[in-house]
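Quick look at the format.
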Amino acid sequence: MPQMAPINWLMLFMIFSMTLIIFNMLNYFLILPSSPSSENINFKKQSLNWKW
């Protein structure tokens, strides 16, 4: 709405930005990916012989 004061736009932008940042941080830190320990063991056992 153009008739709103600029400080209200600034407050809305700040609230939206903080909400977005908090939401992204929660999604990033709460989801624990499965550890690929079995894949690492299989990868280390393979010999890497490059044939050029």
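Next, a different chain entirely:
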Amino acid sequence: MKLGILLHDLHDRENEMARHLLRIAERNAADHEIHHLARDLATWSQAHVRSLAEIAKRYEVELDPEPDSDTAVTQRLLEKTGELLGRRSEASLALLHDLRKVYVDAAGLSLDWETAGQIAQATRDGDLLDLVSHCHPDTLRQMRWANAKVKETSPQIFTS
């Protein structure tokens, strides 16, 4: 079924979003707001991965229910990098790049969730519609967070 392809894509993209947000959190350990918020946003994508794996079974699609994660060594290296860079200008530019990626990736995910919602409505699949209704707003919040952080930090970065 073609829906299986969409579920697989959503699963992969949510996994990637979670990994990227965790990397942002660790690279920006010195900025507690970014660190903690990015970790919280990553848990949303991890929950989406689990939910997608559960509903995919109905369509005979096998998805791993456990979100991907970077190895402990990579995580520790990213933490150290974040500590060493702190708030230096290179780290600030890297943060803008990371936030842009979150925004663009979340926009793509949003379209995929919209597509899944349209399919759910057309096929009268209440379970899929419930999943979309739960997950899609989280993705939109991730996108709005990235956009707000870019608006907040870019003037500071480029004028200092």
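The chain has a mean pLDDT of 89.

See the schema section for token definitions.
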